[in-house]
Structure to design on (168 residues):
């Protein structure tokens, strides 16, 4: 069996982002993996009941996803709403789908307070990024799932080839 990949739905062009748009990753590997039936798309935030469009959200005070998971940080909307509970639910939904579909790898769009894997915004809504991960990425990593950013797609291809070899 070919290893499956949990993927941010917006990377497949699904219009699920806060601004009501997708952000398709146009790469031959995406086309190939789609044809192979490897891709398991999910928008964790929408799965947790957040609407489209929705106010932009950031993890407060420059904290990261792991701090949110441990109750040390909140996720807040630019308009002031506290969406921490929805983001925690989003992370659990992502892990549950990955587990039920046998995904040991994930490809997530960077910069998101949920899906960010290398960088997130600093909580000031000033457009400043800091090194860190979102709540979904942190939850998946805690569970041992290998998480890759969109710009690490070639590294994911190498990891998948290895996983396919092991499964033979
Ligand atoms: Fe895309 Fe993830 Fe944000 Fe959903 S939660 S819009 S999949 S980055």
């Amino acid at each position: 069996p070919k290893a499956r990949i949990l993927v941010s739905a917006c990377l497949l062009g699904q219009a699920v982002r806060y601004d009501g748009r997708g952000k398709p990753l146009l790469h031959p590997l995406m086309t190939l993996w789609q044809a192979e039936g490897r891709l398991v798309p999910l928008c964790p935030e929408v799965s947790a009941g957040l609407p489209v469009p929705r106010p932009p959200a950031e993890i407060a005070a420059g904290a990261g996803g792991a701090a949110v998971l441990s109750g040390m940080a909140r996720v807040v909307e630019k308009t002031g709403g506290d969406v921490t509970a929805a983001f925690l639910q989003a992370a659990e939904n992502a892990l549950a789908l990955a587990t039920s579909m046998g995904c040991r790898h994930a490809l997530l769009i960077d910069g998101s307070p949920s899906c960010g894997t290398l960088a997130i915004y600093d909580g000031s809504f000033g457009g400043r990024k800091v090194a860190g991960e979102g709540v979904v990425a942190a939850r998946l990593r805690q569970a041992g799932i290998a998480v890759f950013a969109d710009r690490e797609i070639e590294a994911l291809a190498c990891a998948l080839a290895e996983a396919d070899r092991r499964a033979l």
The longest strand covers residues 5-8. The mean pLDDT is 97. The chain has one domain: 5-167. The first helix runs from residue 28 to 35.
